[in-house]
Amino acid sequence: MAQPLGVNELCYKYDLKRFGIDCTDEVEPLSGILGQERAMQALIVGIGIRDKGFNIYAAGPPGIGKMSMIESFLHAEAQKMPPPKDWVYVNNFEDPYRPIAIGLPAGRGRELKEDVSKLVQAAKRGLKRAFESDDYSASRERITKELERARNEVFERIAAQCKEEGFAFQPTPYGLALVPLAGDRPMAEEEFNALPLEERKALGAKRESLDPLLKLGMKETRDLELKAQERLQEIDENIARFILGGLIEDLSEKYEDVSDAVAYLSSLLDHALKNIGDFRPSPQPEEPMTALTQGPDLSARKYEVNLLVDNARSHGAPVVIDFNPTYTELFGKAEKEAQFGSLYTDFTLIQAGAIHRANGGFLVLPAEDVIRDPYVWDGLKRCLQTESAYIEDPGERSGYMTSKGLRPNPIPLDVKVILVGRTYLCHLLYAYDEEYAELFKIKAEFDTEMDRTDANIMGMLSFMCRFSTNGALRHLSACGAEETLRYATRTAGDQSKISTHFGLLTDLVREADHYAAQDGSERIMREHVKRAEDAHIARSDLIEQKLREATQKGLIKIDTHGERVGQVNGLTVIGLGDYSFGRPTRITATVAPGQEGIVDIEREVELGGPIHSKGVMILHGCLMRLYGRHKPLSLSARLAFEQSYEGVEGDSASCAELIALISALSEVPIKQSIAITGSINQQGEIQAIGGVNEKIEGFLASCKLQGITGEQGVVIPESNAKNLMLSDEALESAAKGDFRVWTAATLDDGIQLLTGRKADEVHNLARKRLTDFAEVLKDLEKRP
Fold it and tell me: What is the DSSP string of 221-281?
């Protein structure tokens, strides 16, 4: 019979003495990336290729440190790159609804904003002085007097001609009015009404004949006023051109290397010369309430520069990580202001999004959040396809917006996007989004484990050192670090691996530091780490304890003593999110003569999942290989998981089911003190399963509830021996000889361990029983 595994085979023991380390503060803090060489190589390639479409999807489960590793790596790479351009939006004086984007070398965007602001203020001061000067007042007064003199000459000429016809004209708010004369004075209305009708009609006819003369006079005065206004405006323009032109010429020389800035300054000058009133001081309202209702000075804002992206203080390319990628957060927006009950916006209210801030560098986004919002995902793809960053209202794209809004010119986009998410989401995008493969050509897969090499062990110690230092925690003693490494290896589920779920490890260390503080310890010891592990289990194992209590009371029937025919202890794992545990389950088999074959009761009542059903069908194939090569099986059998009221999934109990069936056929009893787990193939080989540690510990707990006899243990697949990382409690029981773990490579190994008899002997008994079944069926067929 196979010998049980030795205690040293049930768990890998870390020994940091061979490294000469007593505490993690004796090693250098980790400065690079640990255990993710494959992913790092993919990132290097993706970042090195600046061509369109070589964006990156970083795939892996949460908690393995993807985001922090990517951030650290990108910051290091970004320092090697030059700072990108600043970007500003300025007014489009020809079409204010389409603001103009201007790119400038890093730091010069703020300069342009300040320079234009200073230019406007200097222009206002200069024009104010010019417009308040004596020369300017004298020039305007001379033109005004010339206008008044010329206008009086026209009026005097018209008055003389009208007087000859017996009329006088008087200026009114509506123009010039003709009034009949009574001698040398204008006739009063009462006098006019007292005249005979015929005389009034004659005066009316004569007045109408003078209308062309009045209209001609009015036209002459308008022409005179227009010419005077043009002369006054020409004076203003000449003064403004002299003051503004000089200021803009100096500024244009400063920005001569930025052609878009020079073009903007030229358009600013043209617009300012046509709108000189924008630079005149606004009259101050006398009433306080009037000032409150006037709102902001919009005429002044149109000459401002909106600094959208400022890289003045950047020492390399930007690395932007957006954990909340809503549409406006990612792509920017044009805010609106309420004025007199309506909404107003202009280019000064445009705000940058993460994609603008990351332009010229790297943008890291959580994949699930991006894809959850179709507007965000479609907008991101559009930006990457067109290599342009747009700012627009999402409602406008969907057709919900009817009012006219801003359509800022797009900004040329040069950004490397890294989506960080689960692996399955990457696969879904490949399958259902054709554009995804064209835009994200690099996949960086992050592993959940790394090899347990000396270099990686030292890397883990360096990681612990860095975490303790950065988090202001106590450092781990050698025994504390050993227990943490043991936890990491158990989490990986392989003695030759170390888990890279750094989030779990840091949570464990942080809680262990809490208990070390309670004990007043200067270092985190092994007992503190163990206490943190136990506390985590205690917070999550309520259901496990309830099931054990039910087993102890006999509500759940499990035998850990004696022998039973057709009954075996199988092992299952129950997952509860952040915690899983194993428990035994009674598997029974019954047989009788018949032609139905094997009936899986779990499948018949739709409690069995597809993988479980597949396992039963494979079990049937193995049974036919054993007993049905020379004649059909005359068998009707039933398999059941007793007291199973929920779904059963997985094939890890198929070996136990087959042994229970063979026991029922051969009538050879099975030891209830031994449980078995493993999946069977059609060749009778026992294959690896998951959750081997939890299953062993679960059966051990049940054995302790019913009393340890020293004969109890678990049979596991031979290929699972490397996955053993049993708890201290299980190791202690094994060391005392109270509990054993055997490995089995084949069905025959399992039969021999569970029955204590040679497998051939059991098979012969089973074949004889099947022969008896066949004879029974023949006899039944002969009966009338």
Answer: HHHHHHHHHHHHHHHHHHHHHHHHHHHHHHHHHHTTT-HHHHHHHHHHHHHHHH-GGGGSP
Task: Write out the two tokens for 736.
Answer: 């005392």
Q: How far is CA 8 from CA 12, 13, 267, 480, 732, in A?
A: 7, 8, 83, 20, 11
64: CB partners within 8 A, 6+ apart: 446, 447, 448, 500, 501, 502, 503
Indicate the residue type of 478: A
pLDDT over 90, % of the chain: 62
- What CA–CA distance (Å, rounded) separates 423 from 430? 11
Alpha carbon distance 312, 646 (integer Å): 63
Q: Record the tokens describing residue 381, joined without a space.
A: 């793809």
Segment among 1-10, 137-146, 478-487 with least mean pLDDT:
137-146
Distance in angstroms (rounded) separating the CA atoms of residues 226 and 233? 10
Mean pLDDT across 386-413: 80
Q: CA 705, 706, 711 angle in degrees (round to 5)?
A: 115
Task: State the pLDDT confidence band at 291, using cuts at 50, 70 and 90.
Answer: very low
Report the alpha-carbon distance of residue 231 to residue 283 in Å, rounded: 24
The pLDDT assigned to 420 comes to 96
The Cα 58–Cα 56 span in angstroms is: 6
- Pick the residue with more confidence: 537 or 401? 537
Structure tokens at 131: 């417009």
Catalytic residues, by residue number, are: 652, 695
Q: Which amino acid is at 312?
A: A
Q: What is the pLDDT of residues 639-661, one digit of tens each?
A: 888 887 676 666 788 999 999 99
Q: Which residues contact 773 (CB under 8 A, 6 or more apart)?
A: 591, 592, 593, 594, 634, 635
Q: Which of 649, 664, 680, 666 is nearest to 750 (CA)?
A: 680
Report the predicted TM-score, pTM, of the whole model to 2 decimal places: 0.82
Whether 197 shows a pLDDT value over 50: the answer reads yes
Q: What pLDDT score was predicted for residue 505? A: 94
**Bridge pairing between strands 497-499 and 449-451:** antiparallel
What are the chain's domains? 16-29+449-540 (1.10.8.60), 36-84+314-446 (3.40.50.300), 546-782 (3.30.230.10)
Instruction: Decide if 487 contacts 23 (C-beta within 8 A).
Output: no
Burial 582-621 (b: 16+ CB within 10 A, else e): bbbbbbbbbbebbeeebebbbbeeebbbeebbebbebbbe
Whose tokens are 């060489």? That residue is 37
What are the DSSP calls for 437-501, one per residue? HHHB-EEEEPPSEEE--HHHHHHHHHHHHHHHHHTT-PPBBHHHHHHHHHHHHHHHTSTTEEE--
| Mean pLDDT on 45-55 | 93
